[in-house]
């Protein structure tokens, strides 16, 4: 169902499934875009319980703000959304900037996060300087499914190029992979092999070796950055297997999914 929530004096648009069993899964979108592109994966995961896909304040169908919220402020807004929905603890499923928001939440309020799923956790040294990151973003645009453009373009136009550039610059400075080393809850990082915004798999494995024992890293073949939209079956499949603590059994993984680190 679709609903509007009053969060901090702002009207927030939210999509929510009606299943009641299981820990809720809350999907957090990337910069300059709404939660619409997250729906293919969220729909598949509705069999596991309530799935919540908000448009964060200032995005999509949510009310515009006087200024663009930064990543810590978006984390605070997400916690307020959880409060408004009476969700004490959730599985956070972030994509791109949604990963940075999720990492902020888990470090700010770990008691609110049951588990963490980070899909395409961009940010940090690999995306610096900004010119390099913009080139990576442009290359990704050519690697995404053509079906993504009519979903994303209206959101980008509404958000505005200057706002998008400002927030993207903030994302490039957010040390997502380094933050993985300090996640206090079980975490699954899912990376597209063709994603130019992320370091190569060897660097990911290096980070994974330094990470806590509760980090799992999975690669999805042929996927770029917007995995939630382009490869929902593979993504939902590996999330489900991981939530069932069964990633050691490769026969349960969808085709095209490889677990490269499970600790």
Distance, first to last CA: 37 Å
Please describe the biggest sheet, giving its number of strands, its sense, and whether it closes into a barrel.
9 strands, mixed
Count of strand segments = 9
What is the share of helical residues?
25-40%
- Weakly predicted, low-confidence segments: none
Shape: globular
Estimate the mean pLDDT confidence.
91
- Rg over CA atoms, rounded to whole Å, is 17 Å
Content of β-strand: 15-25%
Notes on the structure:
With 263 residues, this protein is α/β, with parallel strands linked by helices. The chain contains ten helices and nine strands. It is globular.
What is the compact description of this entry?
The protein contains 10 helices and 9 strands. It has 263 residues and is an alpha/beta fold.
